[in-house]
Specification:
With 258 residues, the chain is α/β, with parallel strands linked by helices. It has one domain: Vaccinia Virus protein VP39 (Rossmann fold, 3-Layer(aba) Sandwich). It is 30% helix and 25% strand. Strands 1, 2, 3, 4, 5, 6, 7 and 8 form an 8-stranded mixed β-sheet that branches. The longest helix is centred in the middle third of the chain and has 13 residues.
């Protein structure tokens, strides 16, 4: 198995504060695909590489039992408390859960860091034969044309410091295996309203930015603050709309592989 990748343990607080969250409608729709329409549904859901709970917390509104795993204790420790969420530290490929014990698996913005083949082997071990897996990723966010251009300039400026597996995000997981019976699913739009301070906080959680900072000793985001400030609509304290380019795969286990 390839070495585990953990890029966000040192920015857990910023991650919790600034990373985008997911529409409750997205998690509700995924739970509904398990065959339940009353909430919280009597299912066990597992949110893998849960971070600080961007998908876990809304998922807990619709599933009776939610297990959240992450490599970084700092990350799950910063997850808001919810009585239906059970948190623990584990690799995605080694969940430690019993065979066929999970109804729904969610993986938000993380599968590109995994040993993908080992991960899918683990999914087939723990997911019930009629269970569901949903994996999604989002590429760069877009705001006004001027703000979008600056975001792309920052991304290109830090390109040499991004981990190689980030390429899977940029190509929308097109080259990552997803060995399940696919289910057509159209997610709701993924949007956030950020002030300038919040946008800068989010950009500083980028793995490429963190690696640049460690290598070069200064914050690359700071180099673009003046440009963002000049381009910000109305005033920097006024939230503005950003849209994330979301790709999602939803599927069920192939019976012959169970």
């Amino acid at each position: 198995m390839r070495p585990a990748q953990s890029h966000f343990a040192n920015v857990a607080n910023q991650y919790a504060s600034f990373r985008p969250t997911y529409a409750p409608e997205l998690l509700q729709a995924l739970v509904a695909l398990t065959g339940h329409q009353a909430y919280p549904a009597p299912i066990v859901a597992l949110d893998i590489a849960a971070g600080s709970g961007q998908a876990t917390v809304p998922l807990a509104e619709y599933a009776q039992t939610v297990i959240a795993s992450d490599l970084a204790l700092n990350q799950i420790a910063s997850m808001p408390y919810h009585p239906r969420i059970h948190r623990y530290v584990a690799r995605a490929e080694l969940s430690g859960l019993p065979d066929y014990s999970v109804d729904l698996i969610t993986v938000a913005q993380s599968m590109h860091w995994f040993d993908v083949d080992a991960f899918h082997h683990e999914v087939y071990r723990i997911l019930k034969p009629n269970g569901l897996i949903a994996v999604w990723t989002y590429a760069l966010l877009s705001g006004t044309p001027e703000l979008t251009d600056i975001i792309h300039r920052l991304y290109n400026y830090t390109a040499a410091w991004w981990p190689a597996d980030r390429a899977h995000v940029d190509n929308h997981y097109a080259n990552l295996a997803f060995p399940y019976q696919r289910i057509d699913f159209i997610p709701p739009p993924m949007v956030m309203h950020y002030t300038l301070e919040q946008l800068l906080g989010y950009l500083r959680t980028w793995s490429g930015v963190q690696r640049y900072l460690k290598d070069q000793g200064h914050d690359p985001v700071a180099l673009f603050v003046d440009a963002f400030t000049a381009a910000w609509p109305i005033s920097p304290t006024t939230p503005t709309l950003f849209t994330f380019d979301l790709t999602i795969f939803v599927g069920k286990p192939h019976p012959q592989k169970q």
